[in-house]
Design a protein that fits this description.
The chain contains 3 helices and 3 strands. The protein is α/β, with parallel strands linked by helices.
Length: 91
């Protein structure tokens, strides 16, 4: 699984580490990858598209959220599709 994550993130033009300054792009141009209801809600509230890969707690479907059972089924096409879905903010 780490190899899949490295392959996906290696092609991103902009990566943000936890605690880093805000991205140079609007949140609506970002895909947050989350596995919990709280993380999903936070990314959703920030205006990001959200790719949800549920872990221990279920995450409710909502506008701007895309679901995957595993990161192994995620590729750049899936991430691009996340950005083409209706706005994460629900507006």
């Amino acid at each position: 699984m780490p190899a899949v994550a490295a392959e996906l993130t290696g092609s991103f033009p902009c990566k943000i580490d936890a605690g880093a300054p805000p991205p140079p792009r609007p949140a609506s141009a970002c895909v947050a990858v989350e596995d919990s209801p709280d993380g999903t809600a936070s990314a959703h509230a920030a205006g990001c598209a959200v790719l949800v890969v549920p872990s221990l707690l279920p995450v409710d479907p909502a506008r701007g959220r895309t679901f995957a059972r595993s990161l192994e089924e995620v590729d750049l096409g899936v991430l691009s599709d996340c950005l083409r879905r209706p706005e994460a903010s629900g507006s």
